[in-house]
Write a structure and sequence with these properties.
heterodimer, A: Arc Repressor Mutant, subunit A, disordered N terminus, B: alpha+beta, four-stranded antiparallel β-sheet, 24 strands
């Protein structure tokens, strides 16, 4: 399923090291926004990058491998079981090895991100990608492997749902 | 402020925070860190495959020695464990599913149920298993529980509830086997749907909402008169202020029995109803009476980086069965409630055995 929307390939993939160094923290941020777990977010992101690394010859040749890894982490982050497992592992490590927890990335407006996490899964993924990474609707559609119309529908419905929770008005730019 | 302008501002602040982390903690994005994790996982999986091939019991012994260091040798090796079967899930990271197994408490009789599901617990009769699979959630396809026989066969969906907006997730079976208590959450824009529900165990009908709010899967007390659950103020995180709650099985008389920030997700009632064992954040086991008194830690001497998670009880109440987890691997162990007698049930390097539930013989 992940391969279906990845028809454009490069002749040679960039080194995985470069890709990881450039994208890691942004992917952690997406995991954090969608899971709400400051400690589990890095485990979720690592899982997504490990999946990419296992098949880097193919995934690295995609025109936008960053979209692939975001799709994986977006799906991992909204799975309740996966989120809890990542959280539990991270909590154990933090205590026993004094690993530093991720800074509170959502400190600017935690209420906004909490409201996103309360949305249905696909709506949460669309709204988070749209605002967190300032993606175009087409890019969000590509990352989630859905149609542009689906993204528009989820963004519209998501905003409608957020408005009363955040005591804000809905506007459609 | 409109939703769109607030979202754009929140996104900008978030991206700025990420840039700050990037400049202040360059190690977080360093490939060396990724390599350490990758090599460890690769090594664990290779060793794990070999160990599993030589037998789960032998593998468990190796696992204990390598991962958890010295184990209490004071308890005789002679089996003093009660009977029954321990049900547990093995998380498959590549497949993003948990595969479920049963084994005798001494680790023998391992059976692959050929089942992928998010959660699974025994029915009180030990003949059936309640399962839920959150991979099944999708537009027009709400989450519902199902029941299977103890050998993994004869899957029967419990889908009498027709509300397409309501997901019914993981939970527990009442001691008399007639009701299920489940966590519920909305499919659409209905935050009021989050909460605890009960349905008939026979067909999943007879829906009742007992409580509203974000909760973990509830657990029945052994006499069926009360339900316990983990609730959070905001998300599940070290600062998430989670706590354990107990209420009557009809949803009344709600009481918080641990301080905020004290509990994390999984917990279980002792068979006599006197204690609830639960996991604290950071992988520590604690015990508390259902009225909130007697709170104390189970003194476990675990190796560095190891946490005790997903506790449950043996049918005779003499043992706690638990998942000991370190980094990318975990195994199922049993230990007395006073922290002595720690011994393995199953586990191997590279395996993520989690969420044990000890079924009545």
């Amino acid at each position: 399923m992940l391969e279906r929307s990845d028809p454009v390939v490069r002749l040679a993939p960039e080194p995985f090291e470069d890709f990881y160094g450039r994208e890691y923290l942004a992917v952690v941020g997406l995991a954090y926004a969608l899971s709400g777990s400051r400690s589990g977010a890095e485990d979720l992101a690592q899982e997504a990058f490990l999946a990419a690394h296992r098949d880097w010859d193919r995934i690295g040749a995609y025109e936008r491998p960053e979209a692939w890894v975001r799709r994986v982490v977006a799906n991992l982050s909204v799975s309740a079981f996966r989120r809890r497992a990542a959280e539990a592992k991270a909590l154990a490590r933090i205590l026993f090895e004094q690993e530093e927890s991720l800074p509170d990335l959502g400190a600017g407006d935690p209420e906004f991100w909490a409201a996103i996490r309360a949305l249905p899964r696909r709506q949460a993924q669309v709204v988070a990608l749209y605002y967190l990474e300032d993606r175009s609707l087409a890019q969000v559609a590509e990352i989630l492997d859905v149609t542009l119309g689906t993204v528009k529908r989820h963004l519209h419905t998501g905003r409608q749902a957020l408005a009363p929770r955040l005591r804000s008005e809905v506007d459609e730019p | 402020m409109t939703i769109d302008s607030r979202g754009r501002r929140a996104g900008q602040e978030f991206r700025r925070a990420i840039d700050d982390v990037r400049s202040s903690s360059p190690d977080r994005g360093a490939i060396a860190r990724f390599e350490r994790i990758r090599v460890r996982k690769q090594r664990n999986r290779r060793i794990g495959a070999t160990l599993l091939a030589t037998g789960v019991t032998v593998a468990a012994i190796v696992f204990v020695g390598r991962v958890f260091g010295p184990v209490d040798r004071g308890t005789p090796a002679a089996p003093t464990l009660p009977g029954g079967l321990i049900l547990y899930g093995d998380w498959d990271a590549q497949g993003q599913r948990a595969d479920w197994y049963t084994a005798r408490p001494d680790g023998s009789g391992l059976r692959d149920l050929q089942l992928s599901a998010t959660c699974a617990v025994w029915f009180p009769d030990g003949d059936r298993i309640l399962i839920t699979d959150d991979a099944a959630v999708g537009p027009g396809r709400p989450l519902r529980p199902a029941v299977i026989d103890a050998d993994g066969s004869n899957l029967r969906p419990l889908d009498a509830v027709s509300d397409p907006e309501l997901n019914l997730g993981c939970g527990d079976v009442s001691p008399n086997g007639t009701r299920l208590a489940l966590e519920g959450f909305g499919q659409g824009d209905e935050p009021g749907l989050d909460g605890i529900y009960t349905v008939r165990a026979s067909d999943g009908g007879g829906l009742k909402q007992l409580l509203q709010g974000p909760v973990s899967p509830p657990r029945y007390s052994p006499d069926g008169t009360r339900l316990s659950f983990f609730g959070t103020k905001e998300g599940v995180s070290p600062t998430g202020s989670g706590a354990l709650f107990v209420m009557r099985a009809d949803g009344t008389d709600l009481r918080r029995i641990t301080p905020w920030g004290y509990a994390f997700d999984d917990h279980a009632w002792s068979p006599d109803g006197a204690w609830i064992v639960f996991q604290r954040p950071y992988g520590q086991l604690y015990l508390v009476h259902p009225d909130g008194s007697g709170l104390h830690r189970v003194p476990l001497s675990l190796g560095s980086g190891t946490g005790a998670l997903n506790p449950s009880w043996s049918p005779d109440g003499a043992w706690i069965v638990v998942s000991l987890q370190r980094a990318e691997e975990s195994g199922i162990f049993v230990v007395h409630p006073d922290g002595t007698g720690l011994r393995p049930v199953t586990g191997a390097s590279g395996v993520q055995a989690q969420h044990p539930d000890w079924g009545t013989p």
